[in-house]
């Protein structure tokens, strides 16, 4: 997988939604405005977000996930056979545990794809910039793990493996379509791996089988996908992200060797913004030529990290992974949930992206 783009100044994808866009979506859901007006508001917000990213100096541009309610709904909106459920999910923050009203989905029928997962998203961003464009997709390994419910899903699928194979095939087809459309960078997001990190993952006797099922599903979505010159595929491993809170903690050690060796992506985007992620030792398992985007800049906190401190941590990681196989990014998106963005201002979000770009240029050169 050598020769793929380095994209030294990376970012995970989602951006803070402008208040006007959030209002437009609320009005659309209430039936006060139509689909065309919502689309026009999205287009305006995305155009502004593209300009912001270009000005920040980062190496890739996304649409901020502005057409989605959250990181999962690109799949949910395109595929029938799932029912939404609402519940109170516990989130961890600096002040302790908080329960937030949250949505999940359960597979309650045979899946039937109605449209592409991200066709309209990609086409519009590609029309607005000459920079490399990234499109994010929810990893199918996460979907089958979270959207399966015993007693309901098993009425339609004989096993999680059968469901996972179908979800992987849908995702793979979208990856190939995006590449054919001119997208330079496709990223899969899987916060489900957070359940297998650190001591809490090892304490679950069923965790190894569940991890391998998740990993094998994600492998099926990307194995053998052809990359033309200039195209890369990445995997972002997340511990949860909403309103500057998180769900999981723990180092990558329990999954590092198997994941880094067998998941055929070109780069891994890994959270390393604070002690929740543990140390860099698991990076010793990253094969030469695979790139690691170090998530050293926090998307959860408003104050920018000191540039010299970020550079020192890059140097520390470079003791385990060659500096040429490293890049820099925020640890997660800025708003994985549209109306649950992290507690930063748009100006602070821009400063974080500019910090990533400036440190990357100082470390690897402006044109690397």
How would you sum up the major sheet?
6 strands, parallel
SS strand fraction: 15-25%
Mean pLDDT: 90
Provide the CATH topology: TIM Barrel
Find the structural class using helix and strand composition.
alpha/beta
Oligomer kind = single chain
What is the number of independent domains?
Answer: 1
Give the CA-based shape: globular
Q: Tell me the number of strands.
A: 8
Instruction: Give the CATH architecture.
Output: Alpha-Beta Barrel
**Strand numbers in spatial order across the main sheet:** 3-4-5-6-7-8
Q: Helicity, in percent?
A: 25-40%
Describe the structure.
With 368 residues, the chain is α/β, with parallel strands linked by helices. It has a single domain (56-364), classed as TIM Barrel, CATH 3.20.20.210. Helices cover 38% and strands 18% of the residues. The protein has eleven helices and eight strands. The protein has helices at residues 19-29, 35-56, 73-76, 119-128, 140-147, 160-181, 198-202, 207-222, 253-262, 307-317, 346-364; strands spanning 79-93, 96-113, 134-138, 185-190, 232-237, 267-271, 291-297, 326-330. The strands form two sheets. It has a six-stranded parallel β-sheet. Strands 1-2 form a two-stranded antiparallel ribbon. α1 runs antiparallel to α2, α5 (140-147) packs antiparallel against α6 and α10 (307-317) crosses α11. It starts with 18 loop residues before the first helix and ends with a helix. The mean pLDDT is 90.
């Amino acid at each position: 997988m050598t020769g793929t783009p380095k994209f030294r100044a990376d970012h995970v994808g989602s951006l803070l939604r402008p208040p006007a866009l959030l209002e437009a979506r609320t009005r659309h859901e209430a039936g006060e405005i139509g689909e065309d007006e919502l689309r026009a508001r999205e287009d305006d917000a995305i155009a502004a977000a593209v300009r912001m990213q270009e000005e920040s100096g980062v190496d890739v541009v996304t649409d901020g996930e502005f057409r989605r309610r959250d990181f999962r709904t690109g799949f949910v909106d395109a595929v029938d056979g799932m029912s939404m459920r609402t519940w109170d999910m516990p989130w961890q923050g600096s002040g302790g545990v908080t329960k937030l009203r949250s949505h999940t989905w359960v597979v309650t029928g045979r899946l039937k794809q109605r449209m592409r997962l991200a066709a309209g998203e990609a086409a519009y961003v590609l029309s607005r910039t000459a920079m490399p464009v990234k499109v994010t997709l929810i990893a199918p390994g996460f979907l089958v793990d979270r959207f399966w419910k015993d007693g309901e899903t098993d009425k339609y699928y004989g096993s999680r493996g059968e469901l996972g194979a179908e979800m992987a095939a849908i995702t793979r087809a979208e990856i190939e379509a995006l590449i054919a459309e001119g997208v330079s960078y496709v990223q899969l997001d899987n916060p489900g791996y957070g359940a297998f990190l650190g001591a809490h993952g090892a304490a679950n006797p069923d965790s190894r089988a569940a991890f391998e099922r998740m990993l094998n599903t994600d492998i099926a979505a990307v194995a053998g996908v052809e990359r033309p010159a200039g195209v890369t595929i990445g995997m972002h491993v997340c511990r949860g992200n909403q309103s500057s809170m998180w769900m999981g903690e723990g180092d990558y050690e329990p999954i590092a060797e198997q994941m880094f060796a067998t998941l055929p992506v070109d780069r891994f985007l890994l959270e390393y913004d604070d002690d929740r992620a543990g140390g860099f030792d698991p990076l010793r398992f990253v094969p030469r030529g695979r790139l690691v985007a170090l998530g050293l800049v926090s998307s959860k906190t408003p104050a920018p990290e000191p540039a010299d401190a970020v550079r020192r941590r890059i140097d520390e990681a470079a003791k385990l992974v060659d500096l040429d196989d490293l890049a820099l990014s925020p640890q997660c998106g800025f708003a994985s949930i549209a109306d649950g963005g992290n507690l930063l201002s748009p100006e602070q979000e821009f400063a974080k992206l500019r910090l990533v770009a400036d440190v990357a240029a100082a470390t690897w050169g402006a044109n690397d």
